Amino acid sequence: MSSSRPSVVYGDWSRRWITLAAFSGERCVDVDDRIDKVLKLWREDIPLPWQRPADPRLLAKRYGRTHHKHGVPKSGSEHEIEFEILGLDSHPIPSGRCFGHKIVDGVNAVPLARDAAGGRGGNVEGDLLLLAGSGGAHRAFLLEVKSTSNDAWYAVVENLLQLRLFLESTEARRIFQNRAVAKDLPKRLPVTAGVLAPRAFYVAPKKKRNATAHARELIDAMATELTGTPIELGLWEGGEIVRLEP
Q: Could you tell me if residue 155 is inside a domain?
């Protein structure tokens, strides 16, 4: 008896991204092959079903994570970076900047996909989604936030998976239009993707530093696929998200 189940399911597709993100040793010895496979994955259709319904929390809150100790994130954590950028919902968003653009609005823990087969590994969230700009020239920034875990290569592959889903997600693409903090936004905001982490995450000796070089190779290779959608390696310094210079 033939099965109606598709030959490729969403959970398998999403796990292939994470398999490509992880490598052992100080250097990725097959980085060129992995880059080719990431490009191939990017070009594939996303197996259905995967889209998640709208999350009402995103209309009411900027900072949507919960913390069991003292109500604030752990010092030095990824969540602390998100909290510093988004601030308390009872106050206006802090007057930060993102790659030179004034941050107008933002949310974290953005649901992008769910594995209909029930595998939690296929559920994908964006760590931080910011709206920045002014005068009708606004842009969305989809950022993978890191503190110490993993490395820049891993983070860029994760971020590309998130970006692939975000660009085709009906609900995620209209979060800021529905929040209506900024007026007269276009139906489809231009998007910048990227990683946001402390400097040591990129430059610590051995694997961290090598992975940053590999990540830049992947970003360069993706440039022809992502016309108008750049990928950045970013630092959170002095109330601003700035580019990590080579």
A: yes
- The alpha helices in 22-151, defined as continuous H runs, are 31-43, 57-60, 78-86
**Does some domain include residue 201?**
yes
User: Which stretches of the chain are assigned E, i.e. beta strand?
Assistant: 97-98, 101-113, 124-134, 137-145, 191-196, 231-237, 240-243
Nearest to 171 by CA among 86, 103, 110: 110
Q: Is 4 inside any structural domain?
A: no
| Residue 79: predicted pLDDT | 92
pLDDT digits (tens, 9 = 90+) for 21-72: 999 999 999 999 999 999 999 999 999 899 888 889 899 899 988 765 566 7
Q: How many CB atoms lie within 10 A of CB 42?
A: 16
Per the structure, the count of domains in the chain is 1
Spatial distance between the Cα atoms of 104 and 140, rounded to a whole number of angstroms: 10
Q: 3-state class of 147 per DSSP?
A: coil
Is 180 buried (19+), middle (13-18) or exposed (0-12) by CB count in 10 A?
Answer: exposed
- 239 within a domain of the structure (yes/no): yes
Q: What is the residue range of 86's domain?
A: 10-243
pLDDT of residue 3: 38
Q: What element of type H or E holds 51?
A: none
What pLDDT does 2 receive?
37
Q: Give CA–CA dist 5/12, Å, rounded.
A: 13
pLDDT-derived band of residue 6, with 50, 70 and 90 as boundaries? Answer: very low
Query: d(Cα 11, Cα 160) in Å, to the nearest integer?
Result: 16
Asked if residues 178 and 126 have their Cβ atoms less than 8 Å apart, the reply is no
